[in-house]
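User: Could you write out the 3D structure of this protein bound to heme C? I've included everything you need below.
Assistant: Certainly. Input first, then the structure.
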Amino acid sequence: MTSRLLGLAGAFLLTSTCLTVAQDNAPAAAGTTIVPQGAAAPAAPAAGTAAPAADSAAPAGQAGAPVAAEAPAVDGAAAPADAAASGEVAMAEGPGAKIDASPSADTKKEGNKATEGDEGKFVDPAGNPVYNLSADGTADWYAWRGFKKYGANCLQCHGPDGLGSSFAPNLTEELQNIDYFTFAGIVVNGQQNKWNPSGNSVMPAWGEDPNVMCSLDAIYIYLRGRADGVLGRGEPKRPPKNEAGQKAEYDCLGF
Ligand code: HEC
């Protein structure tokens, strides 16, 4: 009996030890999606193509975006600084990849080299959503879809092509300063009076609106392309339908 109890106690100890270890590891593991990537990317720019693929699932999963937006906004602010310090980022090559002198914050930090992730959505070396233009200038599905979704939900305030209006800021410029997680956080939660402190400037919260949430990455991808100078004004050259991408959006919308 005693030995059984001892055994049980031992098992409990073991369990709690494992739990402790697991808990110790948990934050580190969660952090890997953000922090070590920033550290890894500059160290091995050549190998960067392979490594990010494993991480791409997490940040690219569009359903996760609203949740992810809460915590990583803080972590994300610290991590990219390391990458920025190192200078080396992976840039896409080819005719469709000419970057503006003042690109988006994500492109500045990690580059815009696109790796295909789930449902034909491309991610940069840090795992953030990014456009991918073919040699003939055809946009990827999400960049094109994002243009449409931007037009339906954001254009009335932020103006055609993301260029801003008297109501709301120019997002092609704002994206030079905010990264994907910050962007997602603002779109989910809204924001007030930062752009125009003396006025009544209100960015609505879209966290409850599936029309925006189900296409959050697409909208970001479109705007990132605009901010980087890769996508011009007007509708991007339309790609063939990405069935998986369209299905994911419709599933999210409950169609
Ligand atoms: C009703 C008007 C309106 C609509 C519609 C709207 N916004 Fe905004 N948005 C604003 C205003 C106003 C601000 C500035 C808020 C502030 O001053 O803090 C803003 C700010 C932002 C910012 C933060 C810019 C920064 O760096 O501070 C982002 C990002 C943004 N909007 C994205 C979007 C996206 C994406 C959509 C479409 C899903 C959208 N907005 C739709 C009015 C709007």
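Residues 153-154, 156-158, 167-169, 171, 174, 177-178, 183, 186-187, 191-196, 201-204, 206, 212, 219 surround heme C (CB under 6 Å).
User: Perfect, thank you.
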